[in-house]
Amino acid sequence: MTAVPATNRPATGAAGGNAAWLERSRAAVWHPCTQMKLHETLPLVPIARAQGVWLEDFDGHRILDAISSWWVNLFGHGEPRIRAAIADQAGRLEHAMLAGFTHTPAVELAERLAEIAPGRLGHAFYASDGASATEIALKMSYHAWRNAGRPEKRGFVSLAGGYHGETLGALAVTDVALFRDTYEPLLMRHATVPAPDARLAGGGRTPADVAREAAQALDAHLARHHASTAAVIVEPLVQGAAGMVMHDASYLALARAACTRHGVHLIADEIMTGFGRTGTMFACEQAGIAPDFLLLSKGITGGFLPLACVLTTDAVYAAFWDDDVRRGFLHSHSYTGNPLACRAALAVLDIFRDDGTIAVNRERARRHAAIDAPLAAHPRVREFRRTGTIVAFEVDGAGADFARRAFADGIARGILLRPIGRTVYFLPPYATTDDEYAMLVERTIDVVDRA
Ligand SMILES: *Cc1c(COP(=O)(O)O)cnc(C)c1O
After folding, report:
1. Are residues 425 and 321 in the same domain?
2. N or C: which end of the chain has fewer CB within 10 A?
3. Are 400 and 421 in contact (CB under 8 A)?
4. Does residue 378 share a domain with residue 249?
5. What is the mean pLDDT of residues 148-173?
């Protein structure tokens, strides 16, 4: 057994090179979602700079960021218009607290998100990351029912394989055993209903049939438990952390109808699917539905700064409007509505408008479908699927350590893949050119060949 590395050991690698940063990071930084001991054998990848779809290490090796740095980067690294907006804002107002104060970026962003969001979601509550958006929606939903004289409505329902973040409240509605099981004794009770996983189609069953059956299960659950249920939370169209599990849009329409029928809030967690990933600005649009809460984060700032936003309805907002302070929503985070982050998000919305990103992406997805056809036809590739700019597939016969090995193989070939179990996926920045995509496909085929 090797010793636990001591803190702040002096680095022995060449100063400023990959090895030195790797060692210093291992000693001082506790990395997320990582068994740190693994880095005895699997090297960290130190990143010095990034441009477009390329990350670059301290020794000049380039890595194609096929997963948008954990789904946050939107247009490519170093997008000059977002950079300029942040720099401009930093010269005016870096931060002011949003309790008792307000500022231009927070107001303008709330207005513009309300304009483009499905339905009428005119009330924006800010936070700093996705998990806190989930926490806010859960608390707000429960509190709204409580203020309406229904305190017994405090249960939540989520889908099998659903992922909504890893703070305790968010983890309670997350169904990923690896993240959840250890903390089970700390989590509030909630219910899980079947996911409308389109891979279950076949043998005469269409994805729409699968969606209808899953929606019937939700409806049956709500019929029994609506009196004690506050909200249903879903990832519309694509369940990301479950392994890019996709479903037919009809599920969302049926789930919306079931929630309305049974008097339960619908929370749409578009933290990953928002901002064009699924081919429309928001995934909910494809089902023609509006949720009671819309959760946004990740791509909202183009991957520059942490920001989250919970949009909700007049009805929810009205439930808190009172002379009694305690009937207000007293939740807060120190950096709520940070002006730099809000300005980055405004720059993102400008780019969507000025570049016609949604239409451009639709064309790009069509071209990419021709480019990745050889991968889709690979003998070891199963369930090749696509929603908007997201592509995923399973690798047949992949071993238990496939995800780790494929990551390392990818890095060695200059591509960043981070498989989830046996599922490989692409969630690339929108700046990815056809040539870069062809390179990604070719190198991924290499990785699959070696699996
Ligand atoms: C990433 C993610 C979250 C959590 O966001 P963090 O910023 O990582 O806390 C929640 N829901 C979904 C759907 C996500 O993809």
Report:
1. no
2. N
3. no
4. no
5. 98
Residues 448/381, Cβ–Cβ less than 8 Å: yes
User: What are the pLDDT digits (tens) for 223-274?
Assistant: 999 999 999 999 999 999 999 999 999 999 999 999 999 999 999 999 999 9
Question: Which CATH number belongs to the domain containing residue 65 in this structure?
Answer: 3.90.1150.10
Task: Find the domain containing 409 and state its range.
Answer: 45-78+357-449
- φ and ψ at 193, to 5 degrees? -115, 160
Confidence class for position 9, pLDDT limits 50, 70, 90: very low
Last residue of a domain, one of 337, 355, 373: 355
Q: How far is CA 323 from the centre of its chain?
A: 37
| Whether residue 430 sits in one domain with residue 362 | yes
- Cα angle at 270 between 265 and 275, to 5 degrees? 140
**Closest-CA residue to 245 (of 199, 206, 305, 282):** 199
Confirm or reject: Cβ of 129 under 6 Å from ligand 1.
yes
Pocket test for ligand 1, best of 136, 163, 168, 309 (most atoms within 8 A of CB): 163
**Would the pTM of this model clear 0.85, i.e. be above it?**
yes
**Core vs surface per residue 10-33: b (16+ CB within 10 A) or e:** ebeeeeeebbbbbbbebeeeeeee
Same domain membership, residue 200 and residue 168? yes
**142 φ, ψ (degrees, to nearest 5):** -60, -45
Q: How many CA atoms lie within 13 A of 185 on its CB side?
A: 1
- Choosing from 247, 272, 293 the residue with most ligand 1 atoms within 8 A of its CB, the one to mutate for a pocket test is 272
378 to 288, 289, 374, 424, 449: CA distances (angstroms)? 35, 37, 6, 13, 9
Residue identified by tokens 């060692």 is 23
CB-ligand 1 contact for 130 (6 Å cutoff) = yes
Instruction: Determine whether the shortest distance from the Cβ of 389 to ligand 1 is under 6 A.
Output: no
pLDDT tens readout for residues 366-385: 999 999 999 999 999 999 99
Over the chain, what is the mean pLDDT? 95
| Same domain assignment for residues 125 and 201 | yes
Q: Do 401 and 439 fall within a single domain?
A: yes
